[in-house]
Amino acid sequence: MKMKLMRVAFRNIARNMRRSILSGSAIAVAAMSIVLLFALIQGMRDDMANNLKTYYTGEIRLQNARYEEFERYNPIHLTLDWEKIDPILAQESFVKAVVPRINFPANLYIKGTSHAVMGVGADFAREAAFQDTAAIVKEGRLPQAGRNEMLMGSALARDLELKLGDRVTLLSNTASRGSNAITLEIVGLSAFPVGALNARYVWVPLDRAQKFLLMGTDTQEILILLQPRTDEAEAASIIRNDILAITGVDTDTRSWKDINVLYSLIDIAQYIYYLIGIFFFLLGSTVIINTTMMVIYERMREIGTLSALGMQGHELTGLFLMEGAFISSIGAAVGVIAGMCITFYLGKAGLDFTDAMSGIDMEISSILYPHFSIWSALFVYVYAVVISTAATLIPSHKASKIEPVEALRYI
Amino acid sequence: MKRRMVFILIAWVCIAQLPVFALTAEEIIGKIDDIQTFSTSVSSGEISAKDRFGVKSSTFKAWTRGTSDSLIEFTSLAEKGQKVLRTKNELYLFYPDAQELIRLQGAALRQSMLGTDISYEDMTGEKDTLAQYTAVLAGQETLGTHTCHVVVLTAKTRSVAYPMQKLWIDTQSYVVWKSQYSTQSGRLLKELEVLETQEISGRLLSRKTKISDKTRKDTETTLTITSLEIDIALDPRIFSLENLTW
């Protein structure tokens, strides 16, 4: 009987091919959109995670234990003893790379006016193990240790009408809570994937930053990359305890996920997108519901005849449910495959949000690459079929309630 | 006889106090300006700034000429070689590692100098108070052991750092023991208190002054003048831009 119903269902789908295609297309478009949306969100999360780890916090960040409490006052004097901590970190087997960095708000003094920027003091030799240092230089070269040189964000240089070889004076507050200024030559223009890093940041050699900010050999923060499959929270705890045991100084040692609230929000947002997905499919399913209802009214005579011949209500429900399920399965498959193809292409070509992202201070790259995931595609497919099929229950159930006598009136 | 003695005593007190009461607010301010303005001066001292992170001290040497020219050179290790030059209405900063002089103007003048409660703006402006403010004598008050005139200054122009000032001026020595700087609406911005004085060439001048910026929380700066010479010969090049880059 089930096989018979399936044959009838297939026949009905084929009999109204245009309508079936329309219904399937609605599901396909919804499925494709969700696949793309999930791929984009995943791409955004991966991109943000990579940028946060590479340019902002590492996988683990060490700061002076009191730094965060006074962060709004720019407590540049709350430092870490780099020379004592570096050898301790070198002993940790799960540590892959370590870099010291000094972040400091500063002003560029150009032709009598000041422009607010963010300065970063970095050891470029060590940075090579942390990030692709060659890729971030758009023009010129990286600054060298011991020289009064800087790498300036390309967008910042453009806005300030500066070029390679120009000398600019940088002013900032120092670790002695006074102020200082230093003149540096622009030897490189940066092209970081994150727009804000190109628009507001200048990078200087660590030793110059230490001298300029009167920090001695101290650093403001230490960023760590871990060996693969290392538990970040556990590693942070071990590092903190080891430093405390050896130096007697407590540090604020945290994994990147604990530091970055925005990333956690994107994590939460993923569940919201699942809910949005349900609405997409329900919207797509309205076409199926509508089509199935029209089919029921058009085939009233047939329903009446089938009922008169002894077909039960639940069998009628099953018949229309099957039709909906077939259309959904095919539509969802087409949509998911189309979504996967587009994702695959955009994953290579990227989506350029440079103009839209300009002026937005987020740790997301200007060019986003949607991330293809087979699990996400499978999830969307099952999700699409279940919701769309369930949606046909409403008209199918209605069909089962039709009395044969009433249906035969349409003859 | 007794009645005559009482009369003489009252008359003496009245006559003795007459010049004090007779002074107008403008005359009192004029006297302060006269006492505090020298043809030249060389001083050295210490600025101690206390904030939520502790106390930070810097030492300096300063040269002044007339009412508008001054040069401060920091001598403490952290700021060694940094200089602040004020000429007429302009203020320049010199940092040893910077290849250019930084001219402060506009909002930048409101920045704190070396993290203290003194802003660069506090160092600018005319010393001729009456050219910028209207003075009103608001009475007399006793501040500790000092009897003071209370003078309220209201700015004539918008170009001054503080639209209103309230000064407690010693009726005898004309030391300004306390001053409060406020906005037009009366919101207190800064408070200055003289803690110790010193006599230099017959003038009683502040030696130790406490300054607190009321817009910042829990901060206080103490300015101590450890040595001061006035009206001495100075090389005029001290106040030139070229001198800054020595």
Short key terms for the protein model shown above:
heterodimer; A: 411 residues; alpha+beta; 2 domains; 6-stranded mixed β-barrel; two-stranded antiparallel sheet; 17 helices; elongated; B: 246 residues; outer membrane lipoprotein receptor (LolB), chain A
Describe the SSE topology:
The complex is a heterodimer of chains A (411) and B (246).
Chain A: H1 2-15, H2 17-56, E1 60-64, H3 82-90, E2 95-110, E3 113-122, H4 124-127, H5 133-136, E4 137-140, E5 149-153, H6 154-159, E6 167-173, E7 179-190, H7 195-200, E8 201-205, H8 206-212, E9 221-226, H9 232-247, E10 251-255, H10 256-259, H11 261-298, H12 300-308, H13 313-349, E11 351-352, H14 354-357, E12 367-368, H15 374-391, H16 393-400, H17 404-408
Parallel strand pairs in A: 3-8, 5-7
Antiparallel strand pairs in A: 1-9, 1-10, 2-3, 2-6, 2-9, 4-7, 5-8, 6-7, 11-12
Helix pairs in contact in A: 1-13, 2-11, 2-13, 2-15, 3-9, 11-15, 11-16, 13-15, 13-16
Chain B: H1 2-22, H2 25-36, E1 40-51, E2 54-65, E3 69-74, E4 83-87, E5 90-94, E6 102-104, H3 120-123, H4 129-132, E7 133-143, E8 146-155, E9 164-170, E10 176-182, E11 188-200, E12 203-213, E13 220-230, H5 241-244
Antiparallel strand pairs in B: 1-2, 1-13, 2-3, 3-4, 4-5, 5-6, 7-8, 8-9, 9-10, 10-11, 11-12, 12-13
Report on the architecture of this protein.
The complex is a heterodimer of chains A (411) and B (246). With 411 residues, chain A is of the alpha+beta class. Chain A is built from 17 helices and 12 strands. Chain A has helices at 2-15, 17-56, 82-90, 124-127, 133-136, 154-159, 195-200, 206-212, 232-247, 256-259, 261-298, 300-308, 313-349, 354-357, 374-391, 393-400, 404-408; strands at residues 60-64, 95-110, 113-122, 137-140, 149-153, 167-173, 179-190, 201-205, 221-226, 251-255, 351-352, 367-368. In chain A, the strands form 2 sheets. In chain A, strands 2-3-8-5-7-6 form a 6-stranded mixed barrel. In chain A, strand 2 (95-110) and strand 3 form a beta hairpin. Mean pLDDT of chain B is 85; it is low at 4-20. In chain B, strand 10 (176-182) and strand 11 form a beta hairpin. Chain B is α+β, with helices and mostly antiparallel strands and 246 residues long. The longest helix of chain B is centred in the N-terminal third of the chain and has 21 residues, at 2-22. Chain B has helices at residues 2-22, 25-36, 120-123, 129-132, 241-244; strands spanning 40-51, 54-65, 69-74, 83-87, 90-94, 102-104, 133-143, 146-155, 164-170, 176-182, 188-200, 203-213, 220-230. A 13-stranded antiparallel beta sheet of chain B has the order 6-5-4-3-2-1-13-12-11-10-9-8-7.
